[in-house]
Predict the 3D structure of the following.
Amino acid sequence: MLMSNENLSSAAIFQAVDVTKNYGGVKALRGVTLDIRPGEILGLCGENGSGKSTFLKIISGQIQPSSGALSLDGEAVIFKNPNDALKNGISAVTQERTLAPDLTVAENIYLSHLKPKSFFGIKWRDTHKQSEDILKKIGCELNTNSLVRDILPGQAQMVEIARAIIGKTRILILDEPTSSLTSYEVDKLFVALRNLAEEGVSIIFISHRLEEIYAICDRLAVLRDGNLVSAGMISEYSEKKLIHDMIGRDPSTLAKNENILGDDALLHVKNFSLVNKFEDVNISLNKGEILGLIGLVGAGHSELLESIFGLHNQRKGSLHIDGVDVRVRNPRDAMRSKIAFVPADRKNQGLVLGMSILENAMMASMSAKHRLARPRSKKTDQQVKTYSKDFNIVCSSIEAPVSSLSGGNQQKVLLTKWLSTDPSILLLDEPTRGVDVGAKSEIYRILLDQRDRGLSIIVSSSEIPELLTLCDRIVVMFRGKVVANLNRSIADESRIVQYAMGQLDEEVA
Amino acid sequence: MFGNLVKQRFFVILVLLVAMIFFFTFTQERFLTINNFTVILTSSSILWVASMGLTFVMIAGGFDLSVGSLLALSGIALGYFSNQLNLNLALAIFLTIAFGAIVGGLVNGFTIGKLGLSFLVVTLGSSTLFIGLTQFWSGTKTNAIKNANLQNLAYEKLFFIPNQVVVMILVYLILLYVQKYTLFGRDIYAIGGNVEAAKLSGINTSRILVMVYALAAGFAALAGVIQDARIGAASPQVGQNLIFTATAAVLLGGTSFSGGLGGVSGTVVGVLFLGVLQNGLSVAGVADYWQSIVTGIILIGAIALDLLQQKRRSSSARGTSE
């Protein structure tokens, strides 16, 4: 292949050749060939689902490729687990927090490494001294005796990075390291990364924020649909080319934003704020409308949706339904105001897996009844059967445990559960996550159908095509603020991407 | 009917129970008599009643270590209501059960359900607290209950069925109804299965938990009443090993520590299993400690078996959802 030759350099310390990864029938990576050169900062770009995380997991040993080869210093290597990768000097800081909250900063930094020891045991003073040094090296001043529980999210991120570079790290992988950092902390981190690179450490840097990619990376590799679309020095990439490579089309030119805040809105979210999540958010929802909410990880859109349902007690601001200021402090309050919420995490928040389809489907609508009332009747059975038929829930009977259903059918049970409460506002977080294509389109049909019957719906999703299919209007959030409020007629993928990455900023009324 | 039984989580223990009854019947001629079965049932009555309440707590994913000490405390309370206050027996019994439920609801239920403290920590503390209160209130002495009707109550019969057995059957039927045919009963399963989902469905999970701990305490108090009635006295020494036996009965009956599974019918099987084992071995003249040894082995075996089944079930469930 022509491209593979370009992407491989003789100076590379690490090479991935024709790496593929299949999950069942899904091809997450389709023959990616890429090298990593000593002392470079390589930016890995791509949308959600482009294969970025799969690639990272493969080179850090968390998963094994279906085919293809990895080599380090020209010798073939196989990483059976993250420890193998670590032994070869490849360490990764992922988006998940891996710190122990009740241990000190120093203990966390040395969690997976040998602490300085003598005959008498661990030398704590040296442990703290060396932890402090390593933190200073990445520009972080922090008392190493503090408990991780007590430090700020940005500082915790620095502790994660400190831990990743404490060994003989040759390749450092940073997946969205800046999402919890302030811009001041980002600047300091970048200086530190630059210093590390000059010492010869290669860094793979992932960020959704284009300005950060341009600020720090030497070279870029762009993935789309599991393919490596392009790779090259940063100077070869204009913003336009980068976005084009990421989404496969040209970024659209700006059109004037239509102001569509209706006066007769059903729901008004006024001055909603939640510390570290979102700030001063104002949105409104019209009757019989589907509103989309989108943002990158950490943009606050998920938390915003949960707050409308009364899940975050500390949120500030007010909620108006039909012009009336309603107090929503917990799910029960929200349900009294006829709000329904389908959470993103079906298994942990949505369903009681051991219970039957029937019981799961009736759980919410029964919650207001007297607790000594009977849980089922001919009427409820009939109601669930009707939904199950209308929604095409494939099951042996409505008394089968909900765990026996496929993801798509489970999601339809969740929809039944909430639609049977007869809501006037339906909130959905990632309504088709882990759902197969067929069920996906059925869920879309159900939602559009409910909208046509006058239900008002807010959908939060990370899939732009999903929102474009469903929504009449799309609100884009960036770092806890609403940055765009786009009518469907002017919304398209590239504009949403640009807003979500903080590339465009418009005052939103 | 039978096919349904096979699917129950307590099925293996039920088979063992039946096998054990056959074994003792053929080896011990004094085993299979109406008299002996009455003994088995009545001697299980305290365990039966206390385990029923504990079953609900464990379905809800919690635990209550204070069942035994609350039994003792309630027993003393009954002595106080009956001897010192000279109350009518029915009223004294009613007050004792209400006393137990309120104490359990406040000390365990409120702190666990409303404040969200760990149930192990709270009930370990309350168990010690109740033991102390029991000693204090009784002056560490066993006091005879003057009202002789109480003891009569324990040994009289209603249409040839001992009163204790009548109470056992009533308790079982009421709780079975609550468990199956009320929203409260289903809430307990929902909370034990997935408390987050229950909360997001608008179920008032803290209130339900307060009620579950109050209910367990109320049944511990009823067990305390039975205890007093059986010996005709209020003793501070009773109930000390009850929590171990009751937990064994509930676990044998298929209710698990992880919550969301099991039920009172299983606990009936668990209690009968322990009762028959104890009785059969003592009829056979086998030393007491063999009961502990056999119970321990079967309990661990049953739970290991359950874990294997769960693993198989979850791996097959994963297979269908992918």
